[in-house]
Model the fold of this input.
Amino acid sequence: MIFLLINSDMRKFYPLGFSFIGPVCQLLSTFLYYQMINQPSRIIGHKQESNLLFAQKYERINSTTATLTALSMLIFWILFSLSILHIQNNFLIIVPITFLIIAVLTIENWHQKKIHKLEEAFTDISSEYEENIQEQESTWKWGCYYNPNDLRIFVPKRFASMGWTINIGRPIGKVLYFGTIALVFVVIIFLAYGGTKDYEIELEGPEMMIDATMYDISIEKEQINTVSIINQLPNGIRTNGYGGVNKSFGHFTFDKYGNCMLYVYNNVNQYVVIDLKGSNPNYIIINDKTMEETETLYQAINSWLSE
Done:
């Protein structure tokens, strides 16, 4: 984060917000670890020696689960960073996210099986306790609460101190759970598509239209004050938009220009600056895939304005 704050050029390729993903992941895993190793000791029988041995093994399974989860988050963070900084294909961002989802579900399933086997291994269990354990296992699948007979949609997690989860045994719960997962993948694919899609700039009649994923814009001739061409952008930050390896677009703020809409290819050091009337945005900054094409675009806009 400090490196990105100092190096403004790098923020064009690696947005400042991404620097918080790693620390947040590790803080979450630390919280998970703290919660699991501080679970109250469970009484599984009437013998003190058996209870002590059970508690030791139970804590070991919980701490191993938390450690594996933290390791999965670390691997996700490394893969995510590599996909942003070093890999040109933006669709590969899906790989670390898919890895994290699969890893967390697998670890949770492993945790449940190990706990169940541990409970079965200690034979000094009352029939009432055993029935209770079997009932609990039947309502938790892959880390999710599943109970069609429970009318609640939101229920406390298996460890109540860790928040709430969805009852996927109910139809609405299924829609919320799988709908959320689907929405995440749709947004990721949509953003990845936006990173690979070329800008489309059309000059038709009194309007200039710029087609970019989620950040389309249309302006009238009378909104334009001047058009100029520059070879370097001033220092600035992305406020709401996309900043990838190959291109950047959306809402940016630059020294001297203020609020801008940016549609640029990052490897082309030439930009067309359109000064607008009003302040939202103050400017539109665009370029094309090469310096020659950017010069041609600049001339085309001037010709369109003079018509």
Observations:
- The first helix runs from residue 2 to 6.
- The radius of gyration is 27 Å.
